[in-house]
Specification:
CATH superfamily of the largest domain: P-loop containing nucleotide triphosphate hydrolases
Shape: globular
Number of strands: 15
Number of domains: 3
CATH topology of the largest domain: Rossmann fold
Distance between the termini: 51 Å
CATH architecture of the largest domain: 3-Layer(aba) Sandwich
Largest sheet: 5 strands, mixed, barrel
CATH class of the largest domain: Alpha Beta
Radius of gyration: 22 Å
Helix content: 10-25%
Length: 316
């Protein structure tokens, strides 16, 4: 039978079948392995090596899968069907031996969520999100939450930067209700993945958008100023007003995957139009004469903060 993965929690995969039933599934062991064969045209080949698959497993919430039921409540995932879209990252802690980690599959928009304060927004982190989202060819809507705390001038200044380069911005508060109608309209009839660091209020926003979810909420740690995980698994929720959201645990880091550092400039939407106008085809936009990107930076058409993010991601 075919179904959709709606939740992953501690190695269990919850698959909703076409008839509405949900099975708690495990993976067929072959799906966790990557078989390495010798380079040969022979039909029968001996396996040289067996490697562990992707960090966190090859299945993501949103995947369409084929399942063999064991009984009325459990089953085994036999096959993962190719996704229409997916968002990936380099798995945390795999810098020396990079591994790919799939975050979500079959969504049609991504919503990075940051708090305007408590915790203070890290816009370099947001830029990493946006580069990976652009590489996935998915639209991004940026949400700045906790507006009831007041938005600092420097945060509002950066919000205007993202608006000017074409990103839609939402300003919300689960406490005061600010922006919740806009948020509902944005989520309606879409499948949206919510991403963000811990403590920015993703769960509080979902509780406000759809009362009755009763998602757990924790305050930001006073000792570290950082959020604490309340979402421990990845879950797909159906919205009463139409559409679905995929709630993900807070991300402390986002290593880029399948993004060539030499070409990271194409994922900065305000830089991309100038790249082909640089004098040198291999221009890295650092000190080269005739660099159209540097000229746009000097004219104020590229924000210095975004240019600094580019330099960091480029490794310059």
């Amino acid at each position: 039978m075919e179904g959709l993965v709606t939740r992953i929690h501690r190695g269990h995969y919850y698959v909703e079948a076409d008839d509405g039933t949900t099975l708690c599934c495990r993976l067929r062991s072959k799906l966790r392995k990557q078989l390495i064969y010798p380079e040969s045209n022979q039909r029968r080949q001996r396996v040289l090596q067996v490697r562990r698959g992707e960090r966190g497993g090859p299945v993501a919430v949103g995947d369409k899968v084929r399942v063999t039921p064991i009984d009325a409540k459990t089953g085994v995932i036999e096959q993962i069907l190719p996704p229409d879209t997916e968002l990936v990252r380099r798995a945390a802690g795999t810098e020396n031996q990079p591994k790919r980690q799939r975050l979500v599959a079959n969504v049609d928009q991504i919503m990075p969520i940051f708090a305007v304060q408590d915790p203070k927004p890290n816009f370099r982190f947001l830029d990493r999100y946006l580069v990976q989202i652009e590489a996935a060819e998915l639209p991004a809507i940026i949400c700045l939450n906790k507006m009831d705390l007041g938005i600092p001038a420097e945060v509002m200044e950066m919000a205007l930067v993202y608006q000017r380069i074409g990103y839609r911005m939402l300003f919300t508060s689960a406490v005061s209700g600010q922006g919740l109608d806009d948020l509902r309209d944005t989520l309606k009839d879409h499948t949206t993945a919510l991403l963000g660091p811990s403590g920015v209020g993703k769960s509080s926003l979902l509780n406000a958008v759809q009362p009755g979810l009763d998602l757990a909420v924790l305050e930001v740690s006073e000792a570290t100023g950082k959020g604490r995980h309340t979402t421990t698994g990845v879950t797909r929720f159906e919205l009463a007003g139409g559409g679905y959201v995929v709630d993900t645990p807070g991300l402390r880091e986002l290593g880029l995957w399948d993004v060539d550092r030499e070409y990271v400039d194409v994922y900065f939407t305000e830089m991309a139009p100038y790249i082909d106008h640089c004098r040198f085809p291999n221009c890295v936009h650092l000190t080269e004469p005739g660099c159209a990107v540097l000229e746009a930076l000097a004219r104020g058409e590229i924000a210095p903060e975004r240019y600094e993010s580019y330099l960091r991601l480029r490794g310059l």
